[in-house]
Amino acid sequence: MLDQERGSPHVAIKLGHLIYHAERPTSIQIMHCQKDKISMFTNQQVYDLSNTVWNEVPAAYGIFNRQMQIIYIGQTDNLKRRMAEHQCNLLHCMHRYGPTYVLAEVIYNEATRCARERELILAYRPPCNQR
Fold first, then answer.
1. Within a domain: residue 7?
2. Which residues pair with 27 in a beta bridge?
3. Which of 131, 73, 84 is nearest to 107 (CA)?
4. φ and ψ at residue 9, rounded to 5 degrees
5. What CATH code is carried by the domain that includes residue 102?
6. In total, how many domains does the chain have?
7. What is the DSSP string of 20-51?
8. Position 70 in a domain
9. How far is it, in rounded angstroms, from Cα 72 to Cα 129?
């Protein structure tokens, strides 16, 4: 959603909760044929993992590779910190699959966030969430 009144491209999701802050949108346009790959996410705005300045918000999230295949699902009380941890931890399983994009849903209640994470893991069965 662009803030067209001020002419600046600030991006926000529903209810004004910011996933990230940037001067220009870093969201990615995905092809219609890929929409089914993200259909379980309520926020279907796709963000670039390495070129997004994340906000400190609680969220459930999914990490995808370049082909929009989900490779990891997680939840956190601080999306900014967690994305930095993922990028620094090169031993994490997801780095074998080429993590490229992120979808995130802001969820303030911890129990709801954990339940949402479990729901998404069961639905998508990402390789890096398998034990």
1. no
2. 47
3. 73
4. -85, 60
5. 3.40.1440.10
6. 1
7. B--SS--EE---GGGGGGGTT-S---EEESSS
8. yes
9. 6
Q: What distances in angstroms separate CA 41 from CA 69, 88, 104, 123, 128, one per listed residue?
A: 14, 26, 8, 11, 18
Per DSSP, the three-state class of 8 is: strand
Write down the pTM of the prediction: 0.74
Look-up of token digits 């699902």: 73
pLDDT in tens, 13-63: 333 344 544 444 444 444 443 455 667 777 767 888 988 888 999 999 999
DSSP state string for 53-106:
-B-S--EEEEEE-TT--EEEEEEES-HHHHHHHHHH-TTSGGGGS---EEEEEE
* Direct distance between the N- and C-terminal alpha carbons of the chain, in angstroms, rounded to an integer: 38
Task: Answer whether residue 43 is part of any domain.
Answer: yes
Is 19 inside any structural domain?
no
